[in-house]
Amino acid sequence: MPTYNRAPLLPFAIQSVLQQSFTDFELIISNGGSTDNTKDVVASFKDERIRYFESEKRLNIGDNYQNALDRAKGEYITFLSDDDAFAPVMLERVKRIIDEQSAEVVAFQVSYYYHDPVFEHYRKIQPNTLFAYPFSGLVKKYEASEAIKFFDSKLGLNNAPPDRKFIMPYLANAVYHRAVFSRIKEIRDRLFNVIPADMYLAIAVFFVIDSYFCLDEPLHVWSFWEGNATGSLSKKGDKLREHYERLLNGQKLDFTPLKFALPLNCTINAVLQAKNDFKGFNNNSDIDWLYYFTAIYKDLMLLKSLGVNTAKEIREFEEVLARQPDELRQNVRSQISKTNLLAEQAMQFSRNNLPFVFRWLKRLHEQVKSEKSVIAHGKDANFNNVLEAAQYLSYIVQSK
After folding, report:
1. Does the N-terminal peptide bond of residue 196 adopt cis geometry, omega within 30 degrees of 0?
2. DSSP calls for 78-103
3. Fewest C-beta atoms under 10 Å: which of 165, 235, 261, 389?
4. How far apart are CA 2 and CA 67, in angstroms?
5. Contacts of 52 (CB under 8 A, 6+ apart)
6. Which residue from 394, 308, 112, 264 is spatially nearest to 121, judged by alpha carbons?
7. CA 157, CA 294: separation in Å to the nearest integer?
8. For 354-395, what is each residue's pLDDT tens digit?
9. Short-list 224, 334, 206, CA closest to 271
């Protein structure tokens, strides 16, 4: 658990670990140079399973994660942000799969705790709300090679059909055998200095394992709030770009034609960098750049519609596309035209058929409810913070 100046939120994350129903673990807390009372907060927990390390200088987020990982002694390793929480049954559920399947990697679903009001999941989300997608409790095994294909599909880099039960193993929603990190270290010593690090890790893992297991249960609660380190679409105007530029801290995107710092472009660059590191990625043959440019264009249009200032990025897109080979440029233009036409037709249809659109949105909302998504408000479910939301979620998981 890396932490920096989160003393008011840190106790919830720590308690969510200490309250695990499986008790044989160590909790490594790496304080990356906090200037608040983080040390006192950790010291208030009288638990021998906590191992606390404090840096005298300010560590960036990647070095803070690396410092925590380097201190780990356990056979299996997972990560938790200092403002998030695990459901109390997380380690118990994962341990069962490890024992039954001799699994090196187990991933599970993420749920969301909203501190601030947003519009997501086809509805207005009020503060102090927990949301989890429908889950079955089933376990599914994926070969590493097919996992890479499904992840590329999620990014829009191929046309592989989606698999709704596919769960990417990121930092906090997966548990890894320490041997996985040893194998990665043979190729890349510093794992977390790529932005975003969790995307790089997900692909890197698939090159050093044969298969992994997905548990279709929400066992991690991600905090959604303005101060979260993860760039979210709540960052309007120039805030989203500025957020990723701070994370990159001068790093360049070496593997994508476009160089701007927005989430999808940074993610694709991290994925391509992992492929380069682990299999010798070739820019000219290992990716269909038609899918890349098309996916980026759609993403820019989406961000623009949500209030993100993408004028600078759209100019760069046009300039870079103009330098591409004729066939690629023409194909991208054709796809963009189709995208714009479909968007305009959808807008025109919406304007002319408002009653139908409202009925469609209502049916969509009813579908979400019928699939038994967890949408709970604290005032009804008796929780007031991310820790209590995780405890409530654990009750839901166990009673399913």
Report:
1. yes
2. ----TT-EE-TTHHHHHHHHHHHH--
3. 165
4. 8
5. 29, 31, 39, 42, 43
6. 112
7. 9
8. 555 455 455 555 554 445 678 899 999 999 999 999 999 999
9. 206
